[in-house]
Design a protein that fits this description.
This is S-adenosyl-L-methionine-dependent methyltransferase. The chain is of the alpha/beta class and 303 residues long. It has nine helices and seven strands. It has a domain at 40-184 and 207-240 and 293-301: Rossmann fold, CATH 3.40.50. Helix 3 links the parallel strand 1 and strand 2 (101-106). The radius of gyration is 19 Å and the shape is globular. It starts with 48 loop residues before the first helix and ends with a strand.
Length: 303
Amino acid sequence: MEEVGKLSGEPTLRYLEDVSKLTKESSTTAIRNDEDLVPIPKKDYGGDRLALQHHLFKYLWQSNFSAPVEEKLKTGATVLDFGCGTVTWLIDLSSQYPNSKFFGVDQPYLLRVSTPTIPSNVTVQYYDILSSGLPFEDETFDFVYMRFMTGEIPEKQTERIINEFLRVLKVGGYLEIMDIDTEGRNEGPITHDLVSSVKLYYKATEKNPSMISKMKSLFNSNSRLTSIVSEDEYCPVGNWYGNIGEIALINWTLLLRQMKNYIIPFLCVSDNEYKKMVNEFVEEVDVFQTHWISTRVYGRKLM
């Protein structure tokens, strides 16, 4: 397999050379500059955390994807989003690339989640995506995309899922997987305890919340993938990082509250003690200047 675009080991922090040099005082508004193509996101999207997360990472990356598929999208491509959630990514791309057709699949329980009006060039299907094969013919899609799902798939099934993606991907098409590594940087003690409990919960369900860190190796070991690229981007969390850090903190706080019932048993704390921990987390990330790393890995189908 051909591998290109090796990293030096550090994320591509596009707007500062060193994350530790930025403080709230040095940037109290948007972090980036006038060259931004993507504006800083809002702090609330009608209570939809997934929409907030979408716009947060779109801003951090200044794009919705990294694979070189934009020209194909402009002229007309067929795209699959595996684990499409509330369809935010698909709706965003469908308006930007009206000549393309977009398909999303996710678990049946998401039928209960309200979503915006689905555009005419978007089709969404809900079924058990982890125990069944994809309901598409071989070589259907020009671009297959998945994000924030690597930790939701049992680790032993990951290779099977990748091969299923490649089955429905056209020769010459691109597969891209994006996620954030649960392992934080500059974690304080409260953050460490919260993250450790998340890891224990996922381990108990045979899942790996840091699976994205293995994705490049899995791509490289697959004989049907070439031109493999891995890119990293900082995700700073906390008011210490200005507006975007505050927005990231809102996202993380909402996520911790949503996961309360899953991770409290591993922390061995009461509801009130957990609430206190989350409140302390909000303060602690500013003291330690905590950040996470998000990763995109993509490759082209060779055969």
